[in-house]
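Much of our argument rests on the idea that a fold can be written as discrete symbols. The record that follows shows the chain in one-letter code together with its fold in token form.
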Amino acid sequence: MKELQEIIKAYDVANQENKKSALVTVVHLDGSSYRRPGARMLVNDDGRITGAISGGCLEGDALKKALFAISEQKHTLFTYDTSKADDSEMGIHLGCDGIIQVLFEYIDSDKIDNPIELLRKALANQQNAVIVTLFDLNNNQNNQYGTCLLLEENGTISGDIPLLCFKEYILNDSSIALKNERSEFKQYQFEQINTTAFFEFIQPPISLVVLGAGNDAIPLMKFADILGWDFRIIDRRSTHANKERFPSASQIVVCTPDVALDYIPVHNRTFFVLVTHSYRCDLQMLKSLSSSSLPYIGILGPKKKFDKMLSDFQQDVFELSQDKISTIYSPTGLDIGAETPEEIALSIIAEIQSVLAGKMGGMLKMKNEVIHSRGSLDIQIKDVKVCNEL
């Protein structure tokens, strides 16, 4: 998410400077690679790069091809085969083992629904969305239609499908990808016409809400900035909760915990962390959050603190369900031996990421299977039997 935000900013700066740009996107992968489909970078005609499509090994060659796309004002697709032992034929040296399809799109700033503008809309409305990118895996020389459609959760459609023959099918499959909340690939064919669609599922940024504006909340804000998360801070002390201490916070709320939810928007990608160092404040906040469907509530402090909270709830005839208790992480953070505020913030952010991804947060060296699931990379082929428009 951070990468997309930076790409959009870089594009706006390039436009102001009257520079042309190309968007470079990993659209498909067979095997392993440092980046997955959906990884992007923006290249300006002066050679400036924003974002990345690999760990650094593809960028040099991709820069040349992006500049070519800008000069020709066209879209191109290129295959990087990193599975070969000798990759000298490409003039690059890769540490991956896969076949990577990379799309190079010239950005026409005069088009209101060019790829960058579609990405901008996808991020602006704080809702789930699907971006559709069309390319021809069978023939790199064929016309590559590129990033052409955005479907948002509220039903809004931006852009269009240039292949009328497949339009109805692609719109329907976009809705399915949005409903399933997962990226998918499909190939459509009618007689000699072929195209592959990458349905990229995009979610709004993570919202990290921190109760307590002490010094240990500052590194949480900095990590949130790096990741492109939306950061909000709550504290009853205006001397602590202010723009001087939290310059990048999207919202600063000065209030007591019992009324905080009257001011903070909450959705299923909102993560709460309680770091007040006040038992009473944390207890008030936890009571307010008890009826929410948040995926994560982290509480700083020893486990006995949370045990006391549960005991106090029972005395107040206030009971937390087992489902709710399962979303409360107390003590908050992964066990990485953290002691300083920065280390503790790192452990909390890492735990939130593990919960978000549905992972246990163990060491990768202990995994026997692949790091990333490849199930979503399979291409489903759809034969279109009848096509009235070409």
